[in-house]
């Protein structure tokens, strides 16, 4: 991604409303938020989209089981997703719901465009269907016991007269697209997976359902509704004005990043670009597929009863503690195991100790030895290189969507600052009457804290803003502009310092 690019559009998957939000959903959504905040810090014009996927058989059945109309059910769960994201300080610019009129209208225009391109055909179809996936499987794709390979649940034999999307026509075009755009699917292993799948031959897929009514009717045959994935994927376009506001759509499309879990890679990297090509639209610039958060070695799911609600962890570790954990603890790509003990240990080590202690030591000493105001920051202090490396490392990692690498780069600056304090012992300097030397050391450390607060703000926005305030800085870190603001020497001398309570109180156990 060229760093000078100023328009930046990033999306999460839209989540199914038959489930309640859990930490797996939060994982993708926090990652998108960190990326969005990072790009806004660079002055980019950012659009961060999330939302809910509200159609399909699964939702219709879930509503029937509870004796509700589908709209009632989706209103409830969509609100739960929204309030979860608000509670996690997710700065989404838009929240799209596929039951909204703006989405319906756009999907219908899109369907018509694909139909007019000759890519949709009526056929009779019989196959094995997993309602949880909303997808048909062939015998050889099923798990050894004949179950859905993802949910390990029985599949249903369904027979319908459906419209088909002629995906097979797009094999060559997709391969050419991925040939020309090596970064269009990341990481590399996922790209290889996608290429392998396309090379294995693409089958046309059924893109309408007659048996259900909860969906977007096909404009040329309203007895059918669009297959839920066909409608859901289009949220990325309908949210930015497709059909309704061509100028706005042209501004945002194509998307920079679709962040998705590996379970839905095929939909995003095979079906979706082909659908877009059919309607004469550009494919996404990059689909980035991350691994699963596992609990006890297994993917979280309703049926396994191993889901963890974000609110339970926020109660113990705070919003910033929650966000930090999922960004720092595992690489954004492979699967990773979640454990409460590991979360508590990392919280204490990285946030309570490294971040929190460093901040309170430096602020306390600043208040005691520098008369409570920021001393002059030396232009050539010994932390200058560590600060430059923190920005460079963070930026490089963020460009690769390596959130763990980005946090490590910032925490390296804290480690260097802590080591410097131990080495120079400002308290001893002050005792020995070396007030100037003590002030020099503390000036360096306070400046390192400013840069840390700034670079860490996308991940821990609340603690960063509080530290910013205690350093006597106006506004919030979000108001600063990178990369300039990360340059050494930005902390104004003479501003009042404030000690304050621990930014991350130590976690002593439940
Ligand atoms: N509605 C579809 C997506 C349509 S996008 C056009 C869907 N929804 S979902 O609710 O099942 O959410 C899937 C996404 O949630 C995954 O791709 C992933 O981003 C996130 N996760 C859900 N469980 C997860 C884990 N256990 N671990 C990591 N991410 C997980 O599929």
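-> sequence recovered:
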């Amino acid at each position: 991604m060229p760093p000078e690019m100023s328009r930046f559009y990033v999306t999460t998957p839209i989540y199914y409303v038959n489930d309640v939000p859990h930490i797996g959903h939060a994982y993708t959504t926090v990652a998108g938020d960190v990326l969005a905040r990072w790009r806004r810090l660079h002055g980019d014009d950012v659009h961060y989209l999330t939302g809910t996927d509200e159609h399909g058989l699964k939702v219709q059945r879930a509503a029937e089981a509870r004796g509700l109309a589908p709209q009632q059910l989706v209103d409830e769960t969509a609100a739960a997703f929204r309030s979860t994201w608000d509670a996690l300080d997710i700065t989404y610019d838009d929240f799209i719901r596929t039951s909204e009129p703006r989405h319906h209208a756009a999907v219908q225009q899109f369907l018509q465009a694909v139909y007019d391109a000759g890519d949709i055909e009526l056929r009779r179809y019989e196959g094995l269907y997993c309602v949880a996936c909303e997808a048909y499987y062939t015998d050889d794709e099923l798990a050894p016991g004949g179950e859905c390979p993802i949910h390990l649940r029985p599949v249903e034999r369904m027979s319908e007269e459906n419209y088909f999307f002629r995906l097979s026509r797009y094999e060559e075009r997709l391969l050419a697209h991925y040939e020309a755009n090596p970064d269009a699917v990341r990481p590399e292993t996922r790209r290889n997976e996608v290429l392998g799948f396309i090379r294995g031959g693409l089958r046309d897929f059924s893109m309408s359902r007659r048996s259900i009514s909860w969906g977007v009717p096909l404009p040329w045959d309203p007895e059918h509704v669009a297959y839920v994935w066909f409608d859901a994927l289009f949220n990325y376009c309908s949210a930015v004005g497709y059909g309704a506001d061509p100028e706005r759509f042209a501004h945002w499309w194509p998307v920079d990043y679709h962040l998705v879990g590996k379970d839905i890679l095929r939909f995003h990297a095979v079906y979706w670009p082909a659908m877009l090509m059919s309607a004469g639209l550009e494919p996404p610039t990059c689909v980035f597929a991350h691994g699963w958060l596992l609990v006890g070695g297994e993917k979280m799911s309703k049926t396994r009863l191993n889901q963890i609600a974000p609110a339970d962890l926020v109660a113990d570790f705070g919003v910033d503690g929650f966000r930090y954990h999922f960004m720092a603890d595992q690489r954004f790509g492979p699967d990773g195991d979640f454990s409460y003990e590991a979360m508590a240990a990392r919280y204490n080590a990285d946030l309570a100790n490294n971040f929190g202690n460093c901040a309170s030591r430096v602020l306390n000493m600043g208040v005691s030895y520098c008369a409570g105001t920021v001393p002059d920051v030396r232009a050539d202090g010994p932390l200058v290189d560590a600060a430059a490396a923190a920005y460079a490392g963070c930026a490089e990692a963020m460009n690769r969507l390596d959130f763990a690498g980005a946090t490590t780069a910032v925490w390296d600056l804290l480690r260097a600052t802590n080591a410097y304090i131990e080495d120079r012992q400002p308290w001893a300097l002050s005792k020995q009457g070396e007030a100037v030397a003590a002030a020099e050391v503390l000036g360096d450390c306070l400046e390192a804290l400013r840069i840390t607060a700034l670079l860490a703000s996308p991940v821990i926005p609340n603690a960063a803003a509080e530290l910013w305030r205690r350093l006597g800085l106006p506004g919030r870190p979000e108001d600063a502009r990178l990369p300039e603001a990360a340059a050494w020497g930005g902390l104004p001398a003479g501003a009042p310092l404030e000690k304050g309570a621990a930014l991350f109180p130590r976690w002593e156990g439940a």
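The first strand starts at residue 7 and ends at 11.
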